[in-house]
Structure prediction request, 218 residues.
Amino acid sequence: MVAGGDPRIDSSVIVGYPTSRNAAGELVLGQDPHLRSGTVVYVGSRIGARFETGHNVVIREDCRIGDDVSVWSNSVIDYGCAIGDRVKIHANCYIAQFTEIGDDAFLAPGVTIANDLYPGQAASAAVMCGPSIGAGAQIGVNVTILPFVRIGAGCLIGAGSVVSRDIPEGCVAFGNPARVRGEVQRLPAIGARIDSVTGSIRRYRWAMPGANGSEEQG
Prediction:
């Protein structure tokens, strides 16, 4: 294990947890990690600089994780995954074995990834494969992504979707099953979709029909 710089590792963190599998070598942890309480990092992974976790995160063996990656509370990255630089994985996510996530991708809370086409069948277990999520893709809350799927770079996947087929790069897709509904570059500006709200911690609401963006009165 290598943890140079200024590591911040809470007392209840376990770094280098043993595995019954044949992990590929020692755990290598880059400089300046910040690992919060309840985090467990298995042996045999290579993790880049400035890795940060929330509470109760599990990182299994044989993973390759880039620099400036954050994994928030109660999320699990199973073994054999490849995750690029500056990836953000929010709370309560499950990343199945053999998943690939490109640089700058974002996974919102509750994203679940599958890798077994016919669970319980030996032939399916022999070819387990998670999805490939392209660089800069944005995956919405509670999205489920099924095995073998490829989500292209820069995609936006709407909340609650089930992604069962490939999504070309730069596309907006949502639904069950998720279908392409448009292009990210053609999305309306955020300012055109919301109005300001006063006197509430919410700050904003959906724009009312015919609203001009002015603050709510009263």
